[in-house]
Amino acid sequence: MPTPLLICDDSNMARKQVARSLPDGWDVEISFATNGLEAIELIKAGKGDVLFLDLNMPEMDGYQVLEAIVQQDLPTMVIVISGDIQPEAHQRVTSLGALDFIQKPVNKEKLTDILAAFGVFNADVQQSEADKPSVIEPSEPLTLTPLNVATSFPETADVESSSQLPPLEGDIRDCYQEIANVAMGQAGDLLARLLDVFVVLPIPNVNLIEVSELSMALSAIEAHESTSGICQGFIGAGISGEALLILNDSSFKDVADLMNYQYEVDDTTELELLMDLANVLIGACLKGVSEQLDMPFSQGHPVVLGQHRKISELIATNSTKWRRTLAIEISYGIENYPIKCDLLLLFTEDSMNTLNNKIAYLLD
Question: Does pLDDT of 196 surpass 70?
């Protein structure tokens, strides 16, 4: 009798990657959930004796799913598969009952070893080649249709303006978001180790937008606080863009304390802090993206966009370089600290064909 297996991830791309990484010959019936609420219902319906669980999801995240499984005494064995690779994340999920933790992108050999170690999969009992897993997939197959142009990020636009935006078509946005999710987790892990904190990771925000509207979207994010920013260009074969790190000025004191700086309220000290953060987050995030695309990036020298200025003023510094851009926005937070730090990866419109081809190759 096949084992009911549930893969829960808000990314269609990630769900399919996990399904392709299952051990050869494992007799399973696969179901998929796009968020924690769906996962709980499918477990109750007997569809999730084994659960592969992501952490960063809308509606109900992975931590909340684990808590609900314990509270409701649900019959499932959980293995977390996540881009959030902080040591603290690993400790938290295992303390909530997860069997183990695997980082994204999932490694088939690692997954097989963990399943075998817990007796979930026995390599000596092979499924016959004629028998195939039964797959229940509620979503459409992954397709690579272009992003539509949006005038602001959906999460930051007001209700009236967002209702007028053209919808995103296909799953190309999902692919970019999952790549950003993995890279974000690697950068967040490095930051967590540097500051000895738990970094709160969001769901990356991805859109193809007009640069003239970029400052409007970011202004809503920053709630009109004054900010300071660093810009660093990057280039690869057929891909170019700029990474922007923007820190709320109100965060400098807490960041300095965590980094053991002797903080003084002056531009020189704050610039040094900003540069250190940029080196960590921009470097690690670009490395994560380049590894997934199998394409090295050369990085230019960091340039100060400005200090103690409005978002619109920071963006205006470089707006003449861009027309339309693929924007990946990641808002890092630090647990128990009012620190707000935004990282933006802005890819030129001319990079889109190369990026789409790379993603299509990864999905083959």
Answer: yes
